[in-house]
Amino acid sequence: MTRGAKAVVEATGVPRTTLMRWVEEGLLQPRPRGRGTPQEWPAAEVAIAVLLARLVAAGMHTAPAAAVARTVVAFGLDEVELGQGLTLKIAPPPI
């Protein structure tokens, strides 16, 4: 299932300008459409955007947060080792 940017903004709680900046920085990768055509956001990329927003809200810098979010979603993890003895547990987002 794909979504439009408006749905992703609602899911993440971040302003559209922030979402688009993350796309421009290469942190998020919606499917390109054509010039003047809205981008499509596959479910996995929406999940990455939601987790990225949560990690940034918790104080993590955007680039490492995006890497963690992409890894968590790609491999279906619920925790990630950030360094020796430093594990980040990821709970499902609150509903």
From TrEMBL:
Coiled-coil regions, chain positions: none
One example of a Gene Ontology biological process annotation: regulation of DNA-templated transcription
Domain of life: Bacteria
Domain HTH merR-type residue range list: 6-63
A GO term, aspect molecular function: DNA binding
Pfam families: MerR_1 (PF13411)
Name of this chain's protein: HTH merR-type domain-containing protein
Organism the protein comes from: Sphaerisporangium krabiense
